[in-house]
Amino acid sequence: MFDYTYLPSPNLLPSLVEMMLKIIFICTMNMAVFAPVLGWVERKQSALMQDRIGANRAEIFGFTVFGLLHVATDALKLLFKEDFIPRGADRPLHYLAPFIAVVPALVAFAVIPFGGKYMLWGHEANLVIADLNVGMLYIFAVASLSTYGAVIGGWASNNSWSLLGGLRVGAQMLSYEVAMGLTLVGVFMVYGSLQLTTIGMAQENFFHWGIFLQPLGFILFITCALAENKRTPFDIPEAESELIAGYFTEYSGLKFAMFWMSEFLEMVTISAVLVALFFGGWQIPFISHQGLIDAMGHLFGPNFGAIVAMLIHVVVFWVKVISWIVILMLIRWSLPRFRFDQVMRLGWKIVLPLALANIVVTGFILLAVR
Amino acid sequence: MAANYKKVNRGVKLTLWERLYVMEVVRGVTITARHFFRNWVSTFRSYVSGNPAERGIMTIYYPEEKPVVPEAYRGRPMLVRAMDGKEKCVACGLCEVACPAKCISIVGAMRPDGTRYPETYTLDGAVCIFCGLCEEACPEEAIVMTHNYEGLVEYDRRLMLYDKEALLVPEDKLKGRLDYIRRRMYNKCNY
Questions:
Q1: Which residue range is the domain that position A230 belongs to?
Q2: What is the mean pLDDT of residues A235-242?
Q3: Has the ipTM of the complex gone over 0.95?
Q4: What is the pLDDT of residue A11?
Q5: Which residues of chain A lie closer than 8 angstroms to B22, CB-CB?
Q6: For the residues B80-104, what does the mean pLDDT come to?
Q7: Chain B residue closest to A223 (CA)?
Q8: Hey, which CATH number is domain B77-189, 3.20.20.70, 3.30.70.3270, 3.20.20.80, 2.60.40.10?
Q9: Can you give the three-state secondary structure of chain B, one letter per residue?
């Protein structure tokens, strides 16, 4: 049986407009806001954490805008840089790898709700691009695709460092993919759904947020998510002191930029999943979803009230996501890199058994409560 | 396999709490986060007030902001021109002798009123090691190390061969340094 609920409703034009607006919003947020700005955030944040000032020299007419212009200069530099392909490289695959890396990071956002459902002039707007009933499975599927980008990039470069990096990506991703799926089973058991909008609505009560119902699952998931993101405590695939840059050693210009961007977009996606599953999605603590819409409806009338409530919810969601990005960056700039054997041991001997135990304990508690 | 490796004792024994790792990660992240937020606030505050001292970060935006050097800082050596326009230097040659790098060469002469003055005073800036021994040796407070640390390097060594006219600075511009020298001498005599 195929569930058609996520397809546009028969009232086609408003649905089409809504769909286009949502896609444009998410694409702009990710490609135009987060991907470049995170490069700046990473530089500045790491600088401040280490008592430095950070990038601040790029300027236009004397304005440096706190170093934000470095993002533009970076983009320009990467645009005009020679697109180098090493001799003996597998050219088609070398071209393909960055695309395979960047697309899943962006596409995974399709099922993450950045707001609830709102009635606007008789049309129900649902602030998620595709309200799949298998939401989280889709994210797992797409996220594991991004592994191919790194592995293919490492293999196609005809370089020993790249190949080693690619191999490490393969091993690390496979190990943590398993654990990541299992850590979230507890969440699905508690909320009884894989659909992220349903999970979001179920977290209307502050004390029903995933962090309170699944604390162990949260810690395990964030570990796995960091490992999937290939950033510092788990950055052995691109360990610069061992493998130059790992799987993207031989990439330059815009193809390098795409690997770089995919890393940041993955971070945004991970933060969004964390927020959607464990931190109440778009919900504000102690204010119910319908309650805010009604309150705003009293103030601004039913339609504009719904729009104001929608904007508040969207802002709340992005504030949560940005806080998580900051925390992930704090972790990235605080911890030293794990050794390869430590990564494997953590994945298979600690996270996986704990995730299984979490499932069993959650099951017993659910049995006892119901 | 097991016999072939030697276990290194690093002298670190982790407790169970530390081996759990999660809380230790939180502890570490708290430290970096504290630095992050503290520097964030202080940077913002200094941006608003325009006072670089409030930034709380050691870094200095160099060409725009100059570091405040300590009083004892030894920069470019300079000759003192007294308020009446004459050199204070009496060409005694003590600085020439004291200089370990032998960068000073003096030819002395006598004025009609019987006071001595340096006819030529050459200081090779490419050889000078900024030790300040000439300043200590000078009985007349005629050569002092200033706080000037800029423009000490040229593309041609011949340009760094400073003559008397290049070295002479009016006394009132060197007041701070001369005060410091007198204070230091006073302290030395009374310790």
A1: 89-369
A2: 79
A3: no
A4: 67
A5: 219
A6: 89
A7: B22
A8: 3.30.70.3270
A9: CHHHCCCCCCCCCCCHHHHHCHHHHHHHHHHHHHHHHHHHHHHHHHHHHCCHHHHCCCCCCCCCCCCCCCCCCCCCEEEEECCCCCECCCCCCHHHHHCCCCCEEEEEEECCCCCEEEEEEEEECCCCCCCCHHHHHCCCCCEEECCCCCCCCCCCHHHHEECHHHHEEEHHHHHHHHHHHHHHHHHHHCC
pTM value is: 0.79
HSE, side-chain direction, 13 A CA sphere, residue A245: 11
Domain count of the fold of chain A: 1
What is the pLDDT at residue A5?
56
Mutate to test the interface with B, among A42, A51, A183 (most CBs of B within 10 A): A51
Percent of chain A with pLDDT over 90: 5
Pull the structure tokens for residue A79.
Answer: 């645009």
What residue segments make up the domains of chain B, in order of their start?
18-55, 77-189
pLDDT in tens, A319-330: 999 999 988 888
Q: Note whether B26 contacts A: Cβ–Cβ < 8 A.
A: no
3-state secondary structure of A119: strand
Kindly tell me if the per-residue pLDDT of A265 is higher than 60: yes
